[in-house]
Every structure is written in C-alpha cells, then in structure tokens.
Design a protein that fits this description.
There is one protein chain. The chain contains seven helices and no strands. The chain has 132 residues and is mainly alpha-helical. The radius of gyration is 23 Å and the shape is flat.
C-alpha cells in the first residue's frame, strides 16, 4: 500500500513537470531532465516492487489480464488528465460536489435512517417517523 502511495505521488510530480515544464524539457534544461529521469527511474523501481508482490493462489473463475500494469497505466493517465484541467473546471467541480453533498444531507439523509451524528440532526425523530 505504501508503495502504491509513493508511486502515485511520484507520478503526480512527474505529470506536473510534464505539463508545466514542457518547454524546459524540450529545451534540455539540466534540472528538468534530471528530475524527469529520477522520477521515471523511481516509477520503474516501484512498478517492479508492485509486480513482485505475492499473489493469491486461490483458484478463481475469472482473472483480469495484466493486473499490475493496466491499473498502473490507468492511474498515470488519470493523474495526467486531471493535472491538465483548468482551474475553472476544478471550481465547477467543487461547486457541484458541495451542491450534491448539501442535497444529500438535506433531502436524503432523513430517509437513510442513519445515525444522527452522521446527518447532523435527527429529522425522522422530529417528524415522528421513529418510535421512541
């Protein structure tokens, strides 16, 4: 788990460098090239560690092909795509997430019969829908 966390952090740093420092990389600036090579070397070493982890010997009906490689590639691609989003997109995302969370708390929480600590209030008890 720690290996995967470190891998995601290094991939994020690599993607930020690729997006924001592309002109320095193309120009051959020594610091950009050095950081890129270091990050890529760390990524390769961490991928080797992930591939060498023990696997379950249980007989399964279905096994996903290329298990360590496809999830790692999808994480890299998604991090890269998220970094290339504009700040306006992130603001819209935050607003819609706040709206959805508010809607969940106000409209749906009383019907979920959740713990009042989770909802922040116990509307079902106030409406008389719950036996005392």
């Amino acid at each position: 788990m720690l290996t995967l966390l470190v891998l995601v952090i290094i991939w994020t740093a690599l993607c930020v460098l690729m997006v924001s420092g592309w002109s320095q990389l193309r120009g051959g600036d020594w610091w950009a090239v050095t950081i890129t090579v270091f990050c890529l070397l760390c990524v390769v070493l961490l991928c080797i560690l992930l591939v060498r982890q023990p696997r379950s010997t249980a007989e399964l009906h279905f096994r996903t092909p290329l298990v360590p490689f496809i999830p790692l590639a999808s994480v890299l691609i998604n991090i890269f795509l998220m970094i290339t989003l504009s700040s306006a997109t992130w603001i819209r995302f935050a607003v819609w997430m706040a709206f959805g969370k508010t809607q969940d708390r106000v409209a749906l929480c009383p019907h979920k019969k959740l713990d009042p600590k989770i909802c922040g209030y116990n509307l079902t008890k106030k409406l008389g829908l719950q036996d005392d």
